[in-house]
Amino acid sequence: MLLFFHLPVLTRTLLTSLIALLVLVGIMLRPFQWNEALIALAGAALLLILGLIAPLDALATLLSQWNTFLFFLGMMALSAFAEEAGLFDWLAVQAARLAKNRAALLYLNIFLLGALISMILSNDATALILTPIVYVLVTRLRLPVLPFLFACTFIADSASFLLPVSNPINILLTSQFPLDLPTFLKLLSLPCLVVIGVNIGVFFLLYRRQLHGRFDLKRLPSPEESIKHPAYFRYTCAVLLLVALAYIVASATRFPLSPVSLSGALLLAGGALAWRRPLLRDLGKHISWPIFGFIAGMFIVVRAVEGTGLTAQFGQLLLHLAGKSNFGAVLIGTAGSALGTNLVNNGTQ
User: Fold this and answer.
1) Which of 154, 157, 290, 346 has the fewest CB atoms below 10 angstroms from its CB?
2) Tens-digit pLDDT profile for residues 326-340
3) Three-class secondary structure of residue 2 per DSSP
4) In this structure, are 187 and 94 located in the same domain?
């Protein structure tokens, strides 16, 4: 129903598809510097106003994704507390010290560190927190900045399929389909490791001349300088280790992951309160609130498109082209998740 007028099915499908396309183009191009959340919410509002999706259907869609919303909240809080404890700075300094003055080895260490952080704290932590820390580090060491920034950016996405928690998009996948941890690892671990290896090889080839140099370890701060409060730092590391183990157990038993991330955030908040860390007062400033509007808008837009039947037809076409093989299914799933990752990263940034 378009306002008070009945529309043919074909017209509804074309209108819904056009609005969804405009939303995607708007998110990627960001005309007039519009916020991605505003674009997604505007598209969702237009679909509701035009009657292309029922309000109850939109509400049910949002409520059904509670695990995704709460996981985002817990994940961002965990990353903020870890940053406050100096964990990312400490890890970056350790990566540089283990490189033994060699720029090429430091480059490899940054790739591996980015993969580790993405695996446990999600790719957003690598893209948004590790990247500026690496920028300061390599500037201090007087190394070329661009190769290291590319390393952080690409490893954030490349390593985002190592575990279900490595990418919020994976939460959608495991919530919608009966995909337990062994199946997830069986289907995505090998492709993910191959992509990581290809990324490392390609960037080493592209920047081989800029990575031949060495750096002076004396320019590095001591590991102790990165730790603002030793007791809170140790407590944060212990909590994050528990959270990582809980993630694995929850993924293996198909338990929702958001309670794990929120519980870890609450433990770190309790530690921040006990040690009187300043972040606790300003935690809200470290949460990217627009991302929730972005996700909500995109959920409604996608649900409206699903209602037209186009996604089912497109999925059947992809399965036909892939020959219904396991390898083809993995490629399709990886490509789809990569697209979702880029959209979510755009919304987060």
Assistant:
1) 346
2) 444 444 444 444 444
3) strand
4) yes
Of 104-113, 216-225, 277-286, where does the model show the most confidence?
Answer: 104-113
CA nearest 242: which of 344, 136, 120? 120
Structural domain boundaries, residue 103: 73-281
Summarize pLDDT for 239-282 with one digit per residue, the tens: 999 999 999 898 888 888 899 999 999 999 999 888 888 776 77
Whether residue 92 sits in one domain with residue 164: yes
CA distances from 51 to 1, 55, 130, 301 (A): 5, 8, 43, 12
Q: Count the domains in the chain.
A: 2
Q: How far apart are CA 242 and CA 68, in angstroms?
A: 21
Q: Are 169 and 81 contained in the same domain?
A: yes
- 229 and 154 share a domain? yes
pLDDT in the model for residue 343: 47
Q: Which of residues 256, 281, 306 is at a domain's end?
A: 281
SS3 state at 122: coil
DSSP codes, 199-246: HHHHHHHHTTTTTS-B--GGGSPPHHHH-S-HHHHHHHHHHHHHHHHH
Please check whether residues 34 and 160 belong to one and the same domain: no
Asked if residue 320 and residue 231 are part of one domain, the reply reads: no
Contacts of 297 (CB under 8 A, 6+ apart): 23, 37, 39, 40, 41, 42, 43, 44
Strand partners, 5: 2
Amino acid at site 17: S
Residues 279 and 199: their CA atoms lie apart, in Å, by: 35
Structure-token pair, residue 138? 């390599």
Confidence (pTM): 0.79
191 burial level (CB within 10 Å; 0-12, 13-18, 19+): middle
Average pLDDT over residues 148-164: 90
The DSSP result for 36-70, as a single string, is HHHHHHHHHHHHHHTTSS-HHHHHHHHHHTHHHHH
Is 102 strand, coil or helix?
strand
Between these two residues, 196 and 331, which has the higher pLDDT value? 196
Domain end position, chosen among 254, 281, 308: 281
pLDDT band at 123 (very low <50, low <70, confident <90, very high): confident
CA distance 165 to 185: 12
